[in-house]
Amino acid sequence: MILIVVALIAVALAFDFINGFHDAANSIATVVSTRVLSPLTAVVWAAFFNFVSAAPVLWGVELKVAATMGKGIVEFPALQARGPHFVLAFIFAALVGAIVWNLLTWWWGLPSSSSHALAGGMIGACLVALGPSGLIRDGILKIVLFIVLSPLIGMVLGSTMMVITAWIVRRQTPARVDHWFRRLQLVSAAIFSYSHGTNDAQKVMGIITIILYGTVWSHRAAMTPGHFPVPFWVVLLCQAAIALGTMFGGWRIVRTMGHNLTKLQPIGGFCAETGGGVTILALAHAGIPVSTTHTITGAIVGVGATKGTRAVRWGVAGRIIWAWIFTIPAAAVVSAILFVLTRGLMVMAGG
Fold first, then answer.
1. How far apart are CA 154 and CA 303, in angstroms?
2. Where are its TM segments located (predicted)?
């Protein structure tokens, strides 16, 4: 059992790594496309702020996104009642379903959501494992609702910041504005990377906590109302994995986000990153595992749209939106099939 648990935690960290790899473009696309930083320097900058976003845990900040992923989507006690092997099969299917979809969309160069891929994986595995009654409808509705709301909020904040900032610097020469915002974009890139680490690493913290409390720590009371203790070593592992993934970067998606969607200057990159980062941090504080991809895409479109609707390549935006729509059902189908296969193998092996 211990070896299986360790192996499954490794799979969870692999998803976390791929999450960072897949979503690196979100953190660095604007700062690279505006040529403020080289690609290598940008990924190191982003990875550093991905990792240090773990710091608030030391001050007792509650990991609300981890709690939502751990006990807000699926009725965990019902899974736990079926035994540790059942829990392990469920988590394995959910993780691999999400990983498959992430790798496919990375290959296609589409900035899809790792958050929604993991939620879709959990939903698909749960439908086979427990049926619809095993799903927590309020939690799922909240996640689905913010597929629409998070990019809209990012769009509004990005465009509003762009209009206000452009008005503030209206009397300055373009060269001076460019000079200022090439430096300020280092700050905005840090804000967005920090928010990415805060939101996305917590998803895997929630999954690993389920693995531990559903198997080797089943005697401990982790799932009581308002109580979801994530071990600090789990926090460090998850932040390190996502930061390492960011270091490798997803260059195919960088091209889509930073060049194909709209053309950005440093002032636009600053407004998009700041608007997106503030949105993600606010929603993470509320315990909503939103998509950093959706949010920054909305913010970039909002900034681009201030120059007129023709400044945004709506055909590219349409491809991205289709990827958003298909993410949860596609990951759900893969994870449902994997759960059936994994559980069948376990039964054959006497587990």
1. 10
2. 43-65, 86-109, 115-136, 143-168, 232-254, 320-341
Q: Which residues contact residue 266 at a Cβ distance below 8 angstroms, ignoring those fewer than 6 apart?
A: 34, 36, 178, 181, 182, 184, 185
Please answer whether residues 287 and 65 qualify as being in contact, where contact means their C-beta atoms are separated by less than 8 angstroms. Answer: yes
pTM as predicted: 0.85
Reference 335, options 128, 107, 141; nearest CA is 128
How far is Cα 136 from Cα 138, in angstroms, rounded to an integer?
Answer: 6
Percent of the chain whose predicted confidence (pLDDT) is above 90: 30
Considering the chain, what percentage of its residues have pLDDT values greater than 70? 85
Q: What is the pLDDT of residues 190-216, one digit of tens each?
A: 998 899 888 888 989 999 998 898 887
pLDDT, position 326: 83
Query: pLDDT tens-digit profile of 80-91?
Result: 888 888 888 999
Distance between CA atoms of 91 and 206, rounded to whole angstroms? 11
φ and ψ at residue 260, rounded to 5 degrees: -75, -30
Structure token digits, residue 99: 């990983």
Q: For 172-199, b where at least 16 C-beta lie within 10 A, e where not — what string? A: eeeeebeeebbebbbebbbbbbbbbbbb
